[in-house]
């Protein structure tokens, strides 16, 4: 019995050491990535002749940053309600066999390579949306988002956002479904016993319990959307910054890096610019994740034990 206790203590120490080592390695990798980006992006904002010049870099990075945010925002606005609705149907409405089958299909969406989504968006979705863009421009051109000449190729920031929304639906759905299924049955049965309808039970028992999990899933989807490269690079028709969703133009940071980095001479100012906008994207995703963790921590007190 004593030897068993000693073995358990030794096992705990080994596991604790491995977990600590893994955590330190992750922090070191993160620190080295940040250091690499910072050091190699110096030439984008500094030259020995003129010193630091952030204005030129800002004028270059601002349209790319705005394009990334626009595409990601469109993707979230489309994907979040669809994904939460699908997850709710699978967890509380669909028969078990149908729920498992649909769940497997949705999970497969996350396994499809992004270049396939990009090819689908470029060859099928973009041309199919051209008539819709003409209609939107004809009837809603007084709204800045639908002003400007509609693209005749369909390769716009809105098309890119729709493609991204399809890509992140699987992530948000998978996380939300698991959280919905973990809702304490006692909470659900208590709400039903008090006379609540099924929707009222979901609204008062399921959603409050799953709020933090839904936010986590949405933020994971946002991280995927912000960092997506090939799908957006194939779909977008790169051009000047425009606030119109139906006009050609705009670009995102990942697409800009992917399309131009191979041709940038090593050690050149152009390469430093691309690394610098990579640093901007790195900081943006870091801030987004910190905000997500803060939001989740505000609601983590609600659990099945309450």
TrEMBL record:
The keyword Membrane applies. It comes from the Bacteria. Residues 65-292 form the ABC transmembrane type-1 domain. CDD domains: TM_PBP2. Part of the binding-protein-dependent transport system for phosphate; probably responsible for the translocation of the substrate across the membrane. The chain crosses the membrane at residues 14-37, 57-90, 102-133, 153-175, 232-253, 274-296. NCBIfam families: phosphate_pstC. Pfam families: BPD_transp_1 (PF00528). It comes from Nesterenkonia aerolata. It is a multi-pass membrane protein. It is found in: Cell membrane. InterPro entries: MetI-like, MetI-like_sf, Phosphate_PstC, Phosphate_Transport_Permease. Belongs to the binding-protein-dependent transport system permease family. CysTW subfamily. This is Phosphate transport system permease protein. Keywords: Cell membrane, Membrane, Phosphate transport, Transmembrane, Transmembrane helix, Transport. Its main location: membrane.
């Amino acid at each position: 019995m004593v030897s068993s206790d000693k073995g358990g203590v030794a096992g705990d120490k080994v596991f604790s050491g491995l977990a600590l080592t893994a955590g330190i390695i992750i922090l070191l990798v993160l620190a080295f990535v940040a250091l690499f980006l910072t050091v190699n992006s110096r030439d984008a904002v500094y030259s020995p002749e003129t010193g630091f010049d952030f204005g030129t870099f800002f004028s270059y990075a601002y349209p790319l940053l705005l394009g990334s945010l626009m595409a990601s925002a469109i993707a979230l606005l489309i994907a979040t309600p669809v994904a939460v609705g699908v997850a709710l149907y699978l967890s509380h409405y669909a028969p078990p066999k149908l729920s498992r089958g649909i769940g497997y299909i949705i999970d497969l969406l996350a396994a499809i390579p992004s270049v396939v989504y990009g090819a689908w968006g470029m060859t099928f979705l973009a041309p199919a949306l051209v008539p819709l863009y003409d209609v939107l421009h004809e009837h809603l051109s007084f709204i800045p988002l639908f002003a400007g000449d509609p693209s005749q190729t369909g390769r716009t920031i809105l098309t890119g956002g729709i493609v991204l929304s399809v890509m992140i639906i699987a992530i948000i759905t998978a996380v939300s479904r698991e959280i919905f299924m973990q809702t304490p049955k006692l909470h659900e049965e208590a709400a039903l016993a008090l006379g609540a309808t099924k929707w009222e039970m979901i609204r008062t028992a399921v959603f409050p319990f799953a709020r933090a999990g839904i936010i986590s899933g949405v933020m994971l989807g946002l991280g995927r959307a912000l960092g997506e490269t090939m799908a957006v690079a194939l779909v977008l028709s790169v051009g000047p910054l425009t606030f119109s969703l139906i006009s050609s133009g705009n670009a995102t940071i990942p697409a800009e890096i992917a399309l131009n980095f191979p041709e940038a001479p090593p050690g050149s100012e152009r390469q430093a610019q691309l690394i610098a906008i990579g640093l901007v994207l790195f900081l943006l995703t870091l801030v987004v994740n910190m905000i997500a963790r803060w939001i989740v921590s505000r609601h983590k007190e609600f659990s099945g034990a309450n």
